[in-house]
Please model this.
Amino acid sequence: MSALSSLAQLQAVAAGVAQPLATVRHCHLPDAPLVLVPLKLAGEAAAPLAVLVGSAPDDPTLLVVPQPRNRDLRFAFAADLAKLVLNHIETSRGAVEELPPGKEGDERIRYGDAPQVLVPNRGGVAFLRLMGRSTRFRSTEGPYAVDPAVPVLGRWLTWFADRYDHPGSSLLLAMTETLRLHWATGQSSLEDGNLAALMGWIDPPDGMDGPAAAARAEDPVVCPPAGPTTDPTFDNEVLAPAIAAFDRAGRGSRAEERLRDVLAGQLTPTWDLMWRAVGLLRALPEGASVPRRWERDRDAFTYYHQTFGEAYPQARRDPPVRAARRLHDLERAQDAYDAQRAFDDPLVMAEHRLDGQAFGGTVAECDPARLDETGKRPKLRPLLRVGTRDPVRLDAGTTVCNAARPALKGRIVEIGDGSVLLELTGGMGRKLTPEPGAVPQVGDRVCFTSLTEGSFGAAKFPDREDTPWTHGGPPGEYVPTDEDAEEEWS
Model:
């Protein structure tokens, strides 16, 4: 936890309401995201109990597994959920955009939009990940055949869960994590995992402060858990008798209707909280770099959708080369995401200033026309002296960039008492005189940081056929087997 986040938490305790950690929204929110609130049976890894799903606050669809231990009912539930999720995916593509040819001259396209799934918390993400793994290998033929949409759903859920791991992606969002990125409460991070308590701090009801609203949210009768787990008292006193009554009465009975009403009562409060949270996030202006990250999400969605019919389901474990490449991609994405958030948001940049990885101040001296003539040809190398009170923990020679214009780069020449001397090296044009407005003038407020969107480039990895012997050698061709399908839903 940073010093700024700790200070915001203390201020939240003193004020009785959550404090902002951001001035802009750092995620994309489409007009009609797919909100999905799941519940699972206690004590079972992936036994779905119910889900409330929909793309409008006043139009939810409730799906229920009246007996979660019944395999046929579970897969019938998965088939119904698949129709809703796959319909959302297909209707979220938008118009097709034609892109310039790639390096090899290949034609490229990108869908104009992409689907977004919102779940209440990390537990919801884990549930979708496990549900995807448990359904994507299922056979659509034979004695235990499932609806053809079930394995398709599993592959898409696995893909969404993989994109959740990608820093900056907005295709699958856990609402508690997204809210915590923008607000600090006066409670612990564990308590922030409760969506009702978190919303109590951020948007308390009239006449209540954050602590009182959060305490009220801990009452499972008033605010049932936001899934996928349920309250033990509810399980023992309400759910278990309702399922037993269904076992005696069967499908189409009043006992089934009673069970649906009971589960709807558990899910509806969280459904309402999700849309309240969406409204709070939409009230924040979108960060400048969010559209670029959404473009990458659309690229990923377009590629997976276009190649869906040509590939096998995702393997249970990545082969060595793919695992190494994925780890490298995640590290690069995290590096770029941290820099983009800081460039977009002065509150985020303030954390890096406190850490000494950035400094802000006023230009005290400026030589905008200075030339470096030590080489064969002169180069434009203006000097800036920035007066600052920030704790600078960067060394001389470190490359930095301007937070307002990341293309304006420089090198630290010396760090004095209350000032930093910079030599600007790029982002000023190609001539020996800087473009108008490219070089800050005396008296301008500036902020420079060592953060860059691409601090290291893409690495080269061997083809899977050239996997070294130290990592098991070339893997055989992957073909899904029955063993892959032996998961918690078996």
User: Anything to note?
Assistant: The first strand starts at residue 19 and ends at 20. The mean pLDDT is 89. Residues 254-282 form the longest helix (29 residues).
